[in-house]
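Fig. S4 source data, part A: sequence.
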Amino acid sequence: MPSAISDVEFEKEVLKADVPVLVDFWAPWCGPCKAMLPVIEEVTKAYEGRVKVVKMNVDENAETPGKYSVMSIPTFLIFKGGAAVKSFVGVKSKEDVGKELDAVLG
C-alpha cells in the first residue's frame, strides 16, 4: 500500500529519496482516483525496492500540488534526483503506469 504524505514531509520523502518516486495526487471524493487505487497498489508491489510510491490528498495539502501545477486529479508525477521528470493525468492501466516508470528507470 502506498504511504500517504503531506506538504511537510514532501521534501524528505520525495525530493531527497534515493530511488525514483511516483506521487499520486488524489482526493477522497474523486471517482477516477478511486478507480486508480487497485492499479497503484499493484504498481507499488511490482516496483517494490526500485520505485517508492506515495499518495498526497490535495484537499489536505495545497502547497505541493500548487507548486507543481496540479490542476486536475488524479495527477501522477514521477520524481528522480529531486526533480519532476514525468507526469500523467487520469485513469491509466497498470501497463501504462509501468511504461512511464520503466522509462524513468532506464
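Fig. S4 source data, part B ends here. The mean pLDDT is 97.
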